[in-house]
Design goal:
This protein is α+β, with helices and mostly antiparallel strands. The protein is built from 18 helices and 32 strands. Helix content is 32%, strand content 26%. A six-stranded mixed beta sheet has the order 1-7-6-5-8-9. Helix 14 (474-487) packs antiparallel against helix 15. The longest helix is centred in the first third of the chain and has 19 residues, at 14-32.
Length: 660
Amino acid sequence: MADGCLQERSRIDGPRCLRVAFAAMFCQKVFCQKPSIDSQRIAVRCAFLLVSERGMHSGSGMRGFSRGFSIMSPKVFRCSFGKRDFSVAAEKPPFDKILIANRGEIACRVAKTARRMGIKTVAIYSEADARAVHVKSCDEAVCVGPPASSQSYLNIDAIVEAMKLTGAQAVHPGYGFLSENAGFAERLEKEGLVFIGPSPFSIRSMGDKIESKKLAIQAGVNTIPGQLGLILTESDAVRVSKAIGYPVMIKASAGGGGKGMRIAHNDEEAAEGFRLSKAEASASFGDDRIFIEKFVQQPRHIEIQIIADKHGNVLYLPERECSIQRRNQKVIEEAPSPFLDEQTWRAMGEQAVSLAKAVHYHSAGTVEMMVDGDRNFYFLEMNTRLQVEHPVTELVTGLDLVEMMIRVAAGESIKIHQNEIKPKVGVLHRYIPPDESEDETGVVRIDAGVEEGSEISIHYDPMIGKLVTHAPTRIEAINKMKTALDAFVVKGVRCNINFVRDVMDNPRFMSGDLTTHFIAQEYPPPGFRGHALTEVEGNELSAIAAMLHMQHKQQAKLFLQPEGSHVAGRQTVGRAALVSVMSPDHIIGEQVTVPLACLSLEFIRALTEGETVIAGQEICVVEAMKMQNVLRAPKDSTVKKIHAKVGQNLALDECIMEFE
């Protein structure tokens, strides 16, 4: 691209290359007792090639070479120089260069493993992400279009062109965007490029929830009773729901990530749920097909991580429990589940393997199951990609799932066997960034794709990062999570750190008594409103609030309720200072306001100024992150003024309508 969109970033200078050469010779000496002539030639050739590509800077010599050296595996070692470390592969990597077709923390995370394996990386970015961290994390970067995802991160033609331009042999899709797009995988095959993921056939087979359920039944996998035929109208939805028996789960056939899902307990909810799920499915996946199945009471949501190669080997790994959810989206994951026993885990794993083999699966994937109170389990769906939550499994097993995906894509076979995998805490040997920690008590890991000054754009999912802790016992892992959450300071955007921190203290969570109803039961409407203060904390907070008011001329409000004090306010301070951040209600005084930045607005029906509405009446639907959010009238009142228009982009807290 002659317009300057291609950026190459030198990561290793000449002196470092010489250090690599000496380190390679030393590694040969460690493994083979003495350096051979061939190893010396390989080391010199390595130095020559790297210096000729990157350029030589004189003056630094070999100072600091012995400051840090560690063997990461029989084939990879790491050298440290000051605050910088880099890894050297003692063998030819599976690929010379891969492109990462994603952004944010997952792009950074894939780049880390690729760099450790000795693979060069290419980032893609939209014009809005030109200064993003993931762009800096890769060796090269190519602009693929304007901010809109459809014109950049979903632009298959631009991504293929970027691969040809940079010489990338394979593409890792991360999660989201094109990660489960069978058409993208097919296009790469036609171009002679490699998709680091499953085959188009596997993606299509498991991507459709109706078809995947039929395949699961054929493979002998337990499934939830329901209607596999498509639901076309609201009346059909009500009729089918009655036949199945309430409560029912209304689902989008192409759904995922909690989008296009609603629970209905009666005819009215079934009709509304069908309408909203259909709209979400169309907006999120371009496919508005809907089906309905029985809703399992008191369910737990359990995931079985699998990894399969192209030679027929399929492994199932320790389960992840993700029952702590909000609006069917996972908030907290843990492994192993405090509920499952080994017998149930193995039964679930064996069914997951059967399903994977039925669709000739290779690469990493996740089979999601619903488990009831008697440990009966039922297939929900299979995600044919790397999950957001994969670091939890990596810490428990000590495996690098991204590395395994890359090796499988290159045609290598899996080197471990099922009997080597146990449902318990594993031994770790991983790269830990400086801001994280690893010691005898456990691990604290942060996967993030932002830095101070980064934008949390309305164009993409607003995940800031992931915090993962690991310890010998569940309680110790929770305590590490508490400490790490307390250390976070996030200013400028609202986030869920304080809510997650509150869950960690919840006695029911601590005991492991979990279902997917946990948040609804423990945080009933109006939901989480800040940490419930003790008397001592209330006194300390009052002093802190007074100080903040004096110093910053800002206010922190105390809401005194029978069950204790709760904190609200705009000042974001760490939990250690006892100040919790609360997202505002959708209803503020006599207004309906926007709960989060939205890309579109649609009124349920045309309202006029002066019209009377009743409490709870649906006013409008706002779309944010492809989720449909219904806003309702705060009380019986009259519409005073309508500020927003249909289809308008709305900012956080922007007023939609006033009442009198």
